[in-house]
Amino acid sequence: MLFFLIGFMGSGKSHWGKLWAAEYKIGFIDMDAEIEIAERKTVSEIFDSKGEEYFRSVEAELLRSYVDLDSSIIACGGGTPCFHKNMKWMNDHGLTIYLSATPEEILRRLMKAQQQNQRPLISKLNQAELLFFIQKKMKEREPFYGQANIILDSFSVTEHTFEEKVLPY
Ligand code: S3P
């Protein structure tokens, strides 16, 4: 079984994915990290040198390469569900889990040191611009995120959530 963790930047996909996978002794994949290894560049460098469109095509291809993977939790990038019909592909090939959070909560997390400058879409925004960006992008992305099989309020997610809400699904 493949478990796809989706949600906005800063919603906790990598954090919870890694923790749950370790607890249940299944695989864990962080898509951004895999793209960085494959391209030998950081996500920011890829956006700068080759553009977002290129990044999205690498991302979509990588996603489809997981088709025969053993049971794993896959932490997607924040935009993964919104391009190249990826959301449909994920729903056809596994269980999608949306970590939902309010724009204010996302802002609070992204304002923490190191969180913003590693993310090319938001690295140059001040606090007011960042909140505006999050609100706008969230509206655009909700229709994709909302197609998830399971929607979790990221605020109340704990180490037990996978066992309590995801496994029984
Ligand atoms: C993006 C989110 C990032 C990364 C890239 C684009 C997005 O992943 O894939 O910077 O479009 O929201 P995280 O959600 O892990 O930060």
- Fraction in beta strands: 5-15%
Number of strands: 5
The tally of helices reads: 8
**CATH fourth-tier homologous superfamily:** P-loop containing nucleotide triphosphate hydrolases
Which structural class fits the helix and strand makeup? alpha/beta
Rg for CA atoms: 15 Å
**Strands side by side in the biggest sheet:** 2-3-1-4-5
Give the % helix.
Answer: 40-55%
CATH top level assignment: Alpha Beta
The CATH architecture: 3-Layer(aba) Sandwich
Terminal Cα span: 12 Å
Shape: globular
What is the H/E order? EHEHHHEHEHHEH
CATH topology: Rossmann fold
* Cofactors and ligands: shikimate-3-phosphate
Number of domains: 1
- The average pLDDT score comes to 96
Q: Low-confidence parts, pLDDT < 50 over ≥5 residues?
A: none
Largest β-sheet summary: 5 strands, parallel
Compose a concise summary of this entry.
The protein has 169 residues and is an alpha/beta fold. The chain is 49% helix and 14% strand.
Describe how the helices and strands are arranged:
Blueprint: E1 2-6, H1 13-23, E2 27-30, H2 31-39, H3 43-50, H4 52-64, E3 72-75, H5 86-93, E4 95-100, H6 103-110, H7 127-145, E5 150-153, H8 161-166
Parallel strand pairs: 1-3, 1-4, 2-3, 4-5
The structure holds shikimate-3-phosphate.
Residues 9, 13, 32, 43, 77-79, 119-121 line the site of shikimate-3-phosphate.
Describe the protein.
With 169 residues, the chain is an alpha/beta fold. The protein has one domain (2-163): P-loop containing nucleotide triphosphate hydrolases (Rossmann fold). It has eight helices and five strands; from the N terminus they run βαβαααβαβααβα. It has helices at 13-23, 31-39, 43-50, 52-64, 86-93, 103-110, 127-145, 161-166, and strands at 2-6, 27-30, 72-75, 95-100, 150-153. The chain has a five-stranded parallel sheet, with helices on both faces. Helix 3 (43-50) crosses helix 4 (52-64). 31% of the residues are buried. The structure holds shikimate-3-phosphate. Residues 9, 13, 32, 43, 77-79, 119-121 line the site of shikimate-3-phosphate (S3P). Residues 9, 13, 32, 43, 77-79, 119-121 line the site of shikimate-3-phosphate.
